């Protein structure tokens, strides 16, 4: 975990200790936390993603509500920065980032902003965790997660699902509330998200059964 990194020093990065071994290219995950929540609150979850070879660039803090322009701007800054690092001379990430398979991801307001920035050509898939109502011109598949006890958020996620013009899977956990992902390293949502990422980014068919609805 690298604190105070990225543009303006207001990012936290979770990544494998050794980068680019054997020519491996690391897909970046641009992650937005919930409102007024430090990204380090999700350390165990984001380290789990990094253990699968991803470089997670987390916004330290998002302070706006759903669809706030400053949330989107913060996520855009992180997306553009990590992509630029791949070609920047002297960067620790030079030649080691898969700039064609980025992931836009976030929780709550971060999940909303993740959709908003997901139309970039580099973003291969979007993961919106307990997000809100949002639409964007996406070109890759989207995973939404929610819970039956997220009584405010689930109807919002349903509206996002209904408006989506790309392949979209809305996964709902029985009994899960809005804060479910923040406990127990993400609960059952974490392995499902990992499988989704490994399937769509690494073409790992071991995660195929989580994506059946998308490829049938």
UniProtKB/TrEMBL annotation:
Cited InterPro entries: AB_hydrolase_fold, PET_hydrolase/cutinase-like
Pfam families membership: PETase (PF12740)
TM regions (residue ranges): none
Ranges in coiled-coil conformation: none
Residues covered by the PET hydrolase/cutinase-like domain: 9-206
Superkingdom of the organism of origin: Bacteria
The protein's name: PET hydrolase/cutinase-like domain-containing protein
Organism field: Sorangium cellulosum
